[in-house]
Amino acid sequence: MPPPPAKVLIHVVPGFAGNDLDGVPIPNSGWYPSCPLISTAATMLLFSRNRSYVFLIAGIFLFVFLAIRKRSYQYSYVIDPFQSYHGDGSGDNFLPGSSGDPNYVPPNDYFDDNTDNNVNDKDQNDEEDTADRIEWSKLKPNYPVQDMRQFPKGSPQWLPKVQKFIETEPAAERQVRLERRDAVKKVFQRCWNSYRKHAWMSDEIMPISGGKRDVFGGWGATLVDSLDTLWIMDLKDEFKEAVEAASRIDFSKAPGDKVNVFETNIRYLGGFLAAYDLSGDRRLLRKATEVGEMLYVAFDTPNRMPMTRWDAVDASKNKPQEADESVLLAEIGTFALEFTRLSLLTKDPKWFDAAHRITELLHKQQDTTRFPGMWPVIVNARTTEFNLHNDFTIGAMADSWYEYLPKAHALVGGLLPQYREMYEKAMEAVIKRNVFRPMLPDNANVLVSGLVSVSRSGDDTVYSLKPEGQHLVCFAGGMLALGGKLVENQTHVSVGEKLMDGCIWTYSHMPVGIMPETFTMLPCPLTISPEKPECTFSETKWKDAIKRHLEAPDDISPEELNSLIAEKHISKGFTSLPDTRYILRPEAIESVFILYRTTGRKDLPEKAWKMFEAIEKNTKTELANAALSDITRYDPENEDESKRYPEKTDSMESFWLGETLKYFYLMFSEPDLISLDEWVFNTEAHPLRRLVPDLKGLFD
């Protein structure tokens, strides 16, 4: 007897019985009668005498169909995310057994015996004074929404596969890879244990003194930023303890200082959502909703644009508020992933509405800026004029808006086509004018992205490139690789790869093997193009550029110039180093990780390991890891031991555990751990589950 038809389907449809469905019965979702091919094959299987022939024909049909699709995904049910308008998240249109299923219960051994998963967070804090608490969700809005945007109905689209198949390595190479993964994990554990001992529930530990610092509302930024890292690194005991602590964070008290809405969104809301998507612990979704309710009040302005530096105390008293006239593009544009995911999980469209209003305005004005295709660094949120200023970059102050364009496209399964449209237009402009090839001593064919200022000269528009590279903008290589895969544009992938190579080059040509915050380089002539990559290094041109950047006298002697270069620790290829700090940033390894997953380039694991070794060697303290004040300070022969290596500063931002070490760990993990075909990272490296087509969509 052959197995029943439903079981046949489970075996022949790739990806359907994946990691998230282990042990979960496939529900009767109503798609089977609508699939004529499978229905016919099943009937023939049951009644035909020559069943081997039927198996062959059905297999050929299915193989051809899947080959045309070129897809291999894990399917989930997403039909109408807002079926229950302003609901409580208790609907039934999520994949049974996944974190979106309201009836999901983690394994029996997940919680301690004395842990009640249904305990209300309020009850856990009954002993605290409640006089100054605010129920953000019950504040009466001064400017209520009149026309709520709704998330589009329908099944997500089939998007191109992102991850490249990476062949299983020989046993010896695998052993090396796993040893490196475990080395990263040990660094994380050392830092986590120190945070737990010295700064528990505070935002940051001070890694030299052992003190603590509250810089992001005092809600435990390191704790929340690290939740998903704990889960990914299989530190489940630590995760349980961290969730217990995080569930007691009180977001009902308005902090005295102004709230950075951007940072609160990416660290706290993103952190809770990712930890929930990974673990299914409903307490985490409740905390995400609490943060979302608080942040939503920052959007209570006449035009529904957010207060990016928000006075929560005044807002809690229902004082009218109005968006600012000068706002950073990144800070107003970085809500699409977190707010959309929260709406999908709660079935409450208000967060999607809040983020999508911003998206609509930016989409409408994309072609009206002084650099069509891009948006300026500074925008006016009060008048909703996003096209007036002159400086354009994908770097600091604008970065995550551009980063979220392809990622939002992936998150919503292509159901909001404006994200793809904006991404493609923006990258066309970026590649044309912001990206440049630097003149380097080894003539390396790499790319860097700078800032473009736009001015008028008579009737002409003048585009001036400031060739300043930033560690932060190293994310762009991964963005273009991911986006290029999603929209099937190989040029984007290639440019992304060269941008990543530019960051690797910068790391390897610094004295201690670590990239500075900012630097400048000499662009190759504009006649250089990918088709004409020649760009021979000229020491004369390099030194002339240094004189301009350092504003040296025209009559400076060659000897004096050489002394100045040595004094400023400027290596060949760089023309100035305006900011020589390293603050434990993740962007370089982020792009190396994404490019490895998307291209499978075999040299990248070794390059990533060299980066990790340099960072760990130079930033390690007795307790954790510390930022560096000057990565050019390297004099191993100096008699004064304190002057041999870069000086450490008493700072360890939460993204060291939430981003940097997470990406290093994933770099040396199995490629199906947080697959880019199933997850998308927010700008704080918190993985959110993508919408992907349901099984019915395979046959539509």
TrEMBL record:
UniProt superkingdom: Eukaryota
Entry cofactors: Ca(2+)
Gene3D superfamilies tied to this protein: 1.50.10.10
Biological or metabolic pathway of the protein: Protein modification; protein glycosylation
Region (Disordered) residue spans: 105-131
Pfam families listed in its UniProt record: Glyco_hydro_47 (PF01532)
Similarity remark: Belongs to the glycosyl hydrolase 47 family.
Sorted UniProt keywords: Disulfide bond, Glycosidase, Hydrolase, Membrane, Transmembrane, Transmembrane helix
SUPFAM superfamilies: Seven-hairpin glycosidases
Segments traversing the membrane: 52-68
Xref: PANTHER family: ALPHA-1,2-MANNOSIDASE, MANNOSYL-OLIGOSACCHARIDE ALPHA-1,2-MANNOSIDASE-RELATED
Organism: Podospora pseudoanserina
Name assigned to this protein: alpha-1,2-Mannosidase
EC number: 3.2.1.-
Taxonomic placement: Eukaryota, Fungi, Dikarya, Ascomycota, Pezizomycotina
